[in-house]
């Protein structure tokens, strides 16, 4: 949002017409009610003509939606808001904001962006990009994580998971059995990229001493998805042109989640590369599913719009296959 605000200013929008409020910032921490937010915005709205209102961490104000709706009705404001996933759980935001709005889902850094961020922070990338890519896989793509080194980086990523649970899940989803939820969360994160079904997950959790009801597990998975920790990727039968019920894979919003929560730091390139391709395709606006014809599988079917389809097969290398063909 700061970038957008700077671009508006450079394009000729007067500074007094750009209102930027970071509700996590010292001085705004007391803004907790709709009335206080309304008063603050009105006090800063001194410019004539269209005003550009930016509010960061808008979820800090309970009932912020009525304030946003009220200023939108005046038709003198172009409004940008950001917030944690907590205000998006269960599709709440769409039911409380009236009229038209655009929602943008942010993803963590791609590998190219990761390299650019390192350069921006004045950090030198490995000359061997293969080694740098391994670091990207194991450390993930959270921009702030690049400011830390070693164990501090893992602590930061574990802190993100804790914060998501405390702010975005526990306070709103009202989970009663916290140990059961955390066990299910660890299981899903540890088995990303593996084909799963509800029945299979239930059986594995029961074997590990954590029996849960089917409806409870479905709720846990929905919560993890809405909190942007995992992304489900359903299977699609290419012959019948129908989704295959009950079979799907779960990919992580960021691979750093896996490596921060597991002591085994070895990279399993198969699911790791799939995860990277999946998140990258989603960040480019594609709908992604897994294709299957009989027992054969295509890693991803990607669609965007009515006619923009692509098929992707993910592999670490195809050199062995090429050499075999040449020898034949």
How many domains? The number is: 2
CATH class of the largest domain: Mainly Alpha
Quote the average pLDDT.
85
Distance between the termini: 57 Å
Q: Can you tell me the CATH topology of the largest domain?
A: Arc Repressor Mutant, subunit A
Can you give the helix content as a percent range? 40-55%
Beta strand count: 8
Going by CATH, the homologous superfamily of the largest domain would be Winged helix-like DNA-binding domain superfamily/Winged helix DNA-binding domain
Q: SSE order, as H and E? A: HEHEHEHHHHHHHEEHHEEEH
Question: What percent strand?
Answer: 15-25%
Overall morphology: globular
- How many helices does DSSP assign? 13
Major sheet strand order: 5-4-6-7-8
Any idea what the CATH architecture of the largest domain is?
Answer: Orthogonal Bundle
Largest sheet: 5 strands, mixed
Helix and strand content put the structural class at: alpha/beta
Unreliable runs, pLDDT <50, ≥5 residues? 322-328
Radius of gyration: 23 Å
């Amino acid at each position: 949002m700061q970038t957008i605000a700077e671009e508006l200013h450079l394009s000729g929008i007067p500074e007094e017409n750009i209102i930027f409020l970071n509700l996590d910032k010292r001085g705004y921490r007391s803004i907790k009610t709709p009335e206080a937010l309304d008063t603050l915005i009105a006090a800063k709205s001194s410019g004539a003509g269209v005003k550009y209102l930016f509010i960061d961490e808008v979820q800090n104000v309970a009932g912020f939606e009525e304030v946003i709706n009220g200023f939108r009705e005046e038709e003198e404001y172009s409004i940008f808001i950001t917030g944690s996933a907590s205000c998006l759980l269960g599709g709440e935001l769409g039911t409380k904001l009236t009229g038209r709005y655009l929602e943008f889902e942010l993803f963590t850094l791609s590998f190219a962006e990761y390299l650019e961020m390192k350069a921006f922070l004045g950090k030198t990338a490995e000359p061997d990009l293969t080694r740098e890519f391994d670091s990207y896989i194991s450390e993930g793509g959270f921009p702030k994580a690049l400011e830390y080194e070693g164990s501090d980086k893992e602590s930061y990523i574990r802190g993100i998971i804790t914060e998501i649970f405390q702010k975005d899940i526990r306070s709103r989803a009202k989970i009663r059995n916290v140990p059961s939820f955390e066990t299910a969360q660890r299981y899903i994160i540890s088995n990303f990229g593996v084909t799963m079904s509800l029945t299979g997950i239930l059986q594995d959790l029961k074997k590990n001493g954590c029996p849960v009801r089917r409806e409870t597990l479905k709720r846990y998975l929905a919560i993890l998805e809405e909190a942007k920790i995992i992304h489900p990727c359903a299977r699609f039968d290419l012959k019948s042109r129908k989704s295959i019920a009950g079979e799907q894979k779960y990919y992580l919003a960021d691979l750093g989640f896996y490596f921060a929560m597991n002591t085994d730091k070895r990279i399993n390139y198969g699911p790791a590369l799939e995860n990277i391709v999946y998140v990258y395709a989603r960040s480019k606006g594609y709908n992604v599913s897994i294709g299957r014809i009989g027992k054969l599988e295509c890693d991803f079917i990607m669609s965007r719009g009515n006619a923009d389809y692509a098929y992707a097969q993910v592999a670490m290398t195809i050199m062995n296959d090429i050499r075999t063909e040449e020898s034949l």
